[in-house]
Request: fold
Amino acid sequence: MAETIFTKIMNREIPADIVYEDDISLAFKDINPQAPVHLLIIPKKEIATINDIEEGDRELVGHLYWVAAKLAKEMGFADDGYRVVMNCGENSGQTVFHIHLHLLAGKPLGWPPYTDKL
Ligand code: 5GP
Reply:
């Protein structure tokens, strides 16, 4: 897959507010936050979309959720609740093709309006 801006962040080629790193993942603040807390949690392995996750990546993907819960506890909002979401492809609005969890917290979170509903 083509290298994305997230690989540049991982390699410290462009700056980011990194809040967590281990041997297989990195977490940093979203540049355009949609909530008081908006972190992105990425695997260091370059995987473009959810559709590209292979059998051997199952533990890696689970690890991203473990990091989300760890950060929620350490940052003190685990008990208030939070949202963890991963976009996939055009209809989801995915813009960076290196899988990432969005970790959103710090306010009650709604869903986007669905105006086509009957
Ligand atoms: P997606 O829409 O692909 O699920 O989410 C990509 C996210 O990456 C967006 O929320 C966007 O604000 C964030 N983002 C894009 N470019 C950068 C960047 O250079 N630095 C940081 N920290 N976040 C970025």
About this structure: The chain is about 20% helix and 20% strand. The first helix runs from residue 5 to 10.
